Amino acid sequence: MTRDYDEFLARLFDTIGPGWVALFLLAAAVAAALLWYTFPAWLRFRFFSVKFFSVKRKPRKKKEKKPKPAKPEPRSRTPEPELEPQPMAVALSPADRLAAEGRYAEAIRERLRESVATLTRHRVIAPAPAWTAHEVAANASQNRPAVSAPLAGATDIFAEVWYGHRPAGPDEDARMRRLTAEVKAALESPR
């Protein structure tokens, strides 16, 4: 079917020429636009008295007013005990929440992401989303040798779980937590 169409267009362009075809298409577009804008006026004039398009419309429903919410009761005058603010260390990180849910592989991945974010924040490495975990460890080790050992161990655990498809458990998560804490400690200590 497409071959016939292509052959037809080829014969048409050979006979008439592409300039005349473009002019014809432009004239057809102008005629369609004029018909589009004048047709409704003509239709109203022609069929208005005949009521050709008379349609019985349903009356609009009135919007129902929603009841206003009741005012809250006044509080009693007895003072409530104030809660002491929790330190930031008590708040669970996303990795801790994943580990608490038993999703250890995802917790390991999140801990490595947190370490990479910390390395970036301390300007040890530049943000590069295309790097593998081992490339991050190699570049960070060149710039800050103190993070070399714990970061290499963390990337090895990550690679075993995610690339090696080994099941992750609480032991792997605990080792990853310890290694990422060592990375943070190495970054916070003076060179």
Could you characterize the architecture of this molecule?
It is a single chain. The protein is mainly alpha-helical. It folds into two domains: 2-47; 94-188, no CATH class. Helix content is 60%, strand content 0%. The protein has helices spanning 2-15, 18-47, 94-100, 104-121, 133-143, 148-162, 170-188. Helix 3 runs antiparallel to helix 4 (104-121) and helix 4 (104-121) packs antiparallel against helix 6. The model has no long low-confidence stretch (mean pLDDT 78).
Report the mean per-residue pLDDT as an integer: 78
Global structural class? mainly alpha
N→C terminal distance: 74 Å
Query: How many domain units?
Result: 2
β-strand number: 0
Question: How much helix is in the residues?
Answer: 55-70%
Summed up, the helix count is 7
Secondary-structure element sequence? Answer: HHHHHHH
Radius of gyration from CA coordinates: 36 Å
Characterize the biggest β-sheet: none
Strand content: under 5%
Global geometry:
flat
Low-confidence stretches: none
